[in-house]
Every structure is written in C-alpha cells, then in structure tokens.
Amino acid sequence: MKMNKVLGNKGVKLALLLMAAMLVVAGCSSNGGSKKGSDVSIEDRYTVDPETPAWQLDKKSETTELTWYVNADWWNTDFGKDVVTKKIKEDLNIDIKFITGDDTKLNTFFAGGDMPDLLTIFDSNSPVVQKAATWAFPLNDLAEKYDPYFNKVAAADTLNWFQLKDGKTYGYPNYSNTQADYDSGNIPAKTAFVIRKDVYEALGSPSFGTPEEFKNVMNQIKTQFPDMIPFGFNSIGEGTGSLGDVLQDFIGVPLETEDGKFYNRNLDEDYLTWLKTLNAVYRDGAISDDSFADDGTGFEEKVKSGKYATMLLDGTPQQGGNLQIFMSANPGKEYIAIDGPQSTVGHQPTLNQSGITGWMISYITKDCKDPAKAIQIFTYLLSEEGQKLMNYGIEGETYKANSDGTVELLPEVKDLQLNNADKFKKDYRMGEFMFFGHDRHKALSKDAFPESIKQMQEWGQGKLKPHFILENINPDQGTAEARGLTAINTTWNTTMVSMIRAKDDATFDSTLADYKAFLDKNSWDKIVEIRSGKMQANKEKLGIK
C-alpha cells in the first residue's frame, strides 16, 4: 500500500512537470524576456581590461541586490552569514536573495514574466535550456562588453559544448569535466559499495562479489545484526537511484553496442542477474520495504545513525557530512568501501562522474538589473581565487598555503569539520556553495573532503570512465519520441522496483516481459535511432573515434 501511494504521487508529479515543460516552451517563445539590463552603462564605474577581472575595477558604490533562483528545494538560501558567502558579498559588493523551488515554480517565472536576475537549473535537456536565447543573455556578449577576463577562467571546451544553434553560449555549469580532467587523475569517484567496519570485521571480511556470496552474507547480517537493515541504497527516484545506472556502472555494463549504437543497459543480462539477486535478498527479508519509499531525508537519517549494514552509495561527497557524523560518534564502526558486487561476465567497473555537461547550469536573465555585476560573479567564482574560497575559505583565516602549491585547513577548522559537521556547514559552508565548482580544485588539498569518504575515494581510483557519449542524447522535448521516452522511464522506474519486490521468479519474469512489451508500444526503435545519432554527434564534437 505504501509503495503504491508513493508511485501514484510520482505519476501525478510527472504529469504536472510535463504540463509545466510545455508551458515553459510557450512562455519562452512568446514573451522573449524583457531587456532591462541590456543597456546598463558602466562608463562611470570602470573601463574593461582583458587582463584584470572586472570586479577588481568596478567602482560602483552602492550594493547591488540581485535575486538568484535555484531550481532545487534543498538549496541553502542563506547569503552573507558564513565565511564563504560573506567574503563574496564583501569582494563584489553584492547582496543575493536566493529563491528555491521545483519545475512547477520555475515555470511560473516564464508564465508571469517576472524573472529573477540569475537562474540555476539542473536539466540540460529541458525546454528552458533549449530556449535560453529567448530569456538569457549570451555569456560571450556580456564578457565582451563588461568582463573579458571571463574568457580566461571559463573552459573553452565547456563553452563550446553549451553553444546553441546561434553559436553563442548562455549557461555555464559546475563540475564540467573534460577528458583531460579525467586523464589527470584529479577527479575522485563518487560511488562506492560500503559496509560498516565493525560488521565487516565481525563477519570475517567476506566477499560480496558473486550473487551467491552476496545473498549468503546478507543472510548472515540479518541473523547476526537484527537491529540493522542489511542493505541500503539511495532514495528511489529518476534513474531509480543507485540501483539503476549506478549499479550498471558498478558492474561495468557496456555504454554502447559493439557497432557504436545506443545500448539498452536496463536489459543487459549481467545487470538482470543482479536484479534477480536483489529480489532473492528482498524475499529473504534483507531489504526493507521502507527503503523503496524513503525520500532523501529519510535515507540521510539512516546514514547518520549507521542503520544500514551495507549500502550501494552514489554521491559520497553529498553524503560526506552524514557519514562524518556517524564516524565521529562511532570510532571503529565507520563505513568503508569494498569491492562489493562484481560483473558475472568479467567486466570491470566503469564508474561515472560528472561529465562535460556538469550539474548546476547558471544563467543571467534578460531581466537582470545589473548584468555587468552578474558576469562579474561568474568570473569571480570561476577564478582560482573564487575556487579556493568556495573549497577552503580564506587564507590565514581558515587555511594555510604550502610552498608546493597545496593548501591545508587550520587545526581548529579541521577539528570542526571532523567533530561538528553541522556547525562546520553553517559557519563556513566550504565545499557546499559550489556554483561553477570544479573537481580539479579539490586536488589542492587532502582537506577538500571529510575524512569519512577519503578511503572510499581511494578505492575508486582507476575505476572511472567518462560517459560523455551518453550526455544529452534524448529526443528533443515536445516530440512524440520524447513523450514515449518519458513514459518508458516512468514505467522502468516502477518495473525495476516491482522486479526487486517480486514474490517469486515467475512474477519477476512476467514483470520484465511486460516492460519489454511496453518498449515496443512506445516507439523504442525510433528512440534508439535518435539516441544513436546524437551519440555519434557527441563523438564528432569531442573528437572520439
């Protein structure tokens, strides 16, 4: 009953989001955004200099107040109270009012025409992104007019990747990693199969590699640690949490067919073998029904309290604070990464990290009151100075710089990070306020991440594989194929959960058969053709043969 309710709510939400997406397209096309900021003069403020960031030149005396919408309810809206944002406020002479919401709220901006000054979204395939030329300023033009130093700190590959058909770039992401970034070894893994150290040692450090080993150890945990949930995973959602493409990456499911076409990884036999294994574990009582209904908050509370004996965990940096809280309070019981489930056909892990598309994509809208100041924010945060501030705070106040170019947190700051993660987040906000953040700047210090995830990152070394070819390959929004894919993804979400929770093998198999039939009824062949074509375009854009 509880599961049906959750999936029912998701269906309603999906319908609302589809309606919102259609309205966004209409809104973007019709109102085009006003151009309040396009004629802002900087004549009395500064003269642009390609060799100097404009924020260092700007003599504007009054504080610029800007509104910044972030399309995520969880975003921390405080500004100017912690070390990081207080410094940004001081250096740039700005005050930012953050607004948060979901896709439905995002649509109200376009429907009502009352746009924020800056806007950050997370879906690079959304109509909002595709129509950015109608409501956002081109960053190329703003840089030329107000802050040419932007081009020194922005990555050319990233700017090219985000170009629209007019040859201009309107949004810039954080964590946009190129092949060179992957090759550098500076990008840490963010996925791990983890187990509580005390549990692992009590069981004699067992292997979880094969389906039989996995089932056997889960039963041992259930018997020896009855107060724990033997196996946990990120909250079920788009992509089905860590049991979807994350598990596929973990066991090395191929990214494409042998002839370079799109491959339906959901139907990979190796992956289906592991889903059937999870079903057996569920029927043995080692996976809790609550895990399928828990939202992000519910999952995090269990992580903080060490409720799970093992987890397939995606987003270890995002869970770093919660893992640190448990680690600090329970010495010797901390979560550690081990090899966990492995491919039944000999594939190696191909763990994904942020690709060239990145994560949070930020724009300066045509309603922006002061686009000169707005592009200064982009330049400031993208610069080495801004990156160090966001990651490590202020030199001499929160960190010291070493002669070899590395940095380390001061002892009292490090102590707070280790022993009072909540206060550390509130007072310092380092590692959290990450507009335009980049993984390579994390490599400057061993203090960039909490102690709780360092061993997990070490385990992940050598296991990353860029998924560039799979970025932005879905059918264009508004097309019949896009609607079909939305239905297919929703159906897969419920199908995967139903397969894991199936009462017997026959139910598992029939549920899978129903999904395959659903594919045939929703233009799957055409979707594969479109995705394969876009994969080829990605390869050409990136020079991949």
From TrEMBL:
Keywords: Signal
Keyword field contains Repeat: no
Signal peptide: 1-26
PROSITE patterns in alphabetical order: PROKAR_LIPOPROTEIN
InterPro entries linked to this entry: Bact_solute-bd_prot1 (IPR050490)
Protein name: Sugar ABC transporter substrate-binding protein
